[in-house]
Design a protein that fits this description.
Elements lengths: L3 E4 L5 H8 L3 E4 L5 H7 L5 E4 L6 H4 L7 E4 L9 H7 L2 E3 L6 H16 L2 H9 L19 E4 L3 H14 L3 E4 L5 H6 L3 E2 L3 H7 L2 E4 L13 H6 L5 E4 L8 H9 L5 E4 L19 E3 L8 H19 L19 H7 L4
Parallel strand pairs: 1-2, 1-3, 3-4, 4-5, 6-7, 6-9, 7-8, 9-10, 10-11, 11-12
């Protein structure tokens, strides 16, 4: 019997094509709970973008063997519930690394060079703004990277190669050798990095440990000339504290691809600040990246449903769980 794969939201057609070669594929008409609860009941695999995957929803998925997250992060998925129910969660952790790293360099460069206020000034016939002399070089400015994984380390390498920026990093989970290999210097504490860096760039997942890790006290440690870059998750930064720090000129500017609420409310003060560059959670959404993500996420589902252990498993402990559906069905010869 052909297996069923549910796609919760629109993805690049290349991923759909990959899955349609082997499975009965359908795209949910909308990602609401009621719709997904109905559609997921006979699904053997699910590919999800941003729809909330709760325990209640998963309990409707009695046939579900594997879920693939369309991207690297998975904070919209109840991973603990998936593991308890014996369901594999896979992701696409390397597919958008290049795109997000490039985006990071471009936005902090744009803030440093005052691209947005200069653009607005020219359009408003205020050409003499060029004589304000407020734009800054990147050369020899210290880049502080919080989270030195695949994306963070690539940001460090590209920044040093392109702009001769000294790179410092804070990541208690990365060995010294890995940090040194990419030409960075380890900071033993977050506070040390914040006090030293001219540009602070966040590249961490949203977890209980990282939620609100940049708040009022941390912002107060930064240089008045510093720029904060958040391309990770909105919840990593205390947004009201950031707004206050920008309004009081505690720091000089920010580049944000993510927000506490997405999309942000129309009255969010960040939308009115010329020293803040905003993008719509799009750092990893270049054409090339979404194609790579689509292929990688689809491959995780395909491998699993053909009885092959997928390459990128978010919850590998599920393989030892007595209720693991992948292990059971493979042993029964049903995969």
């Amino acid at each position: 019997m052909q297996k069923n794969v549910l796609i919760t939201e629109r993805i690049h057609e290349s991923g759909v094509h990959d899955l349609e070669q082997y499975f009965n594929v359908r795209v949910a008409p909308d990602p609401s709970f009621d719709t997904l609860a109905r559609e997921i009941r006979d699904a053997d695999g699910v590919l999800v973008r941003t729809a909330p995957i709760t325990r209640e929803l998963l309990q409707e998925a009695q046939r579900l063997v594997v879920m693939a997250r369309y991207g690297a992060g998975y904070d919209n998925v109840d991973v603990a519930a998936m593991t308890e129910l014996g369901i594999l969660l896979v992701n696409a952790p390397t597919a958008n690394t290049i795109s997000v790293a490039e985006h990071t360099l471009i936005v902090f460069g744009a803030v440093s060079k005052m691209i947005r206020p200069y653009d607005l000034a020219v359009r408003a016939h205020q050409f003499n703004t060029r004589n304000s002399f407020q734009a800054r070089d990147l050369h020899d400015k210290t880049l502080g990277i919080i989270g030195f994984g695949k994306i963070g380390s690539l940001v460090g390498r590209k920044s040093h190669a392109a702009f001769d920026m000294p790179v410092i990093a804070y990541d208690p989970y990365i060995p010294d050798d890995n940090i040194l290999r990419y030409g960075a210097t380890r900071c033993d504490t977050l506070e040390e990095l914040l006090k030293t860096a001219d540009i602070v760039s966040l590249h961490v997942p949203l977890t209980t440990e990282t939620t609100g890790m940049i708040s009022r006290a941390q912002l107060a440690l930064m240089k008045p000339s510093a720029i904060l870059v958040n391309i990770s998750r909105g919840g990593v930064v205390d947004e009201p504290a950031l707004i206050d720090a920008l309004q009081r000129q505690v720091i000089a500017g920010a580049a944000l691809d993510v927000f506490a609420q997405e999309p942000p409310e129309q009255d969010n003060p960040l939308l009115q600040m010329e020293n803040v560059l905003l993008t719509p959670h799009s750092g990893g959404l270049t054409l090339e990246a979404v194609i790579r993500v689509a292929h990688q996420a689809a491959q995780g589902i395909t491998d699993t449903l053909f009885g092959r252990q997928p390459k990128f498993i978010v919850n590998p402990e599920v393989l030892q769980h007595p209720l693991c559906r992948f292990v059971r069905l493979k042993a029964e010869g049903k995969l």
